[in-house]
Design a protein that fits this description.
mainly alpha, elongated, 4 helices, 104 residues, single chain, 2 domains
Length: 104
């Protein structure tokens, strides 16, 4: 004899609610672990006196765009193509693209 549809529905609903409860408990446990790791990383940043966020890891001039100089992307040759994709996404800092010595 086949189970009734209402029994199958309630069984499926109970299984899904049990799965949801498991996911919520797992998320809470992982959040506590992540908070501890974040606190350790924050302490390490204060200890090492790190100043800037590393946005991209490809090239030195895309890691910290505020700390680069104008010629760094063209260190291989003045007319060379961009080697790294992030160079097309991250614009140079404004102080590098303004003209110096010109008065408008």
């Amino acid at each position: 004899m086949a189970p009734r549809r209402s029994t199958m529905f309630l069984g499926t609903l109970a299984a899904l609610l049990l799965g949801l409860a498991g996911m919520l408990l797992h998320a809470r446990a992982e959040e506590q672990v992540a908070r501890q790791a974040l606190a350790r990383n924050a302490a390490r940043v204060r200890q090492l006196r790190l100043t800037d966020l590393c946005l991209c890891t490809e090239a030195s001039y895309t890691r910290h765009p505020t700390l680069t100089d104008f010629a760094t992307p063209f260190q291989d040759a003045p007319m060379s193509w961009e080697h790294f994709p992030t160079g097309a996404v991250i614009q140079p800092p404004p102080h590098l693209v303004t003209r110096h010595g010109t008065h408008d």
